[in-house]
Amino acid sequence: MVNRRRFLTGAGALAAGMAGLGGYATAYEAGMRLDLTSYDLSSSHWPADLPIKIAVISDIHACEPWMPAERIGAIVDLANAQKPDLTVLLGDFVGTQHFVTRYVAPGAWAEQLARLEAPLGVYAVLGNHDWWSAAMPTDPPDNAQSVRKALAGAHIPVLENAAVSLSLKGRPFWLVGLGDQLAFRYGRRHAWGTDDLRGALREIKDDAPAILLAHEPFIFPKVPDRVALTLCGHTHGGQVNLPFIGAPFVPTKRGVKRYVYGLYQEGERQLIVSGGLGTSNLPVRFNRPPEVLSVALRGA
Question: Which of 33, 79, 95, 293 is within CB 3.0–4.6 Å of 289 for a Cys-Cys bond?
Answer without folding.
Answer: 33
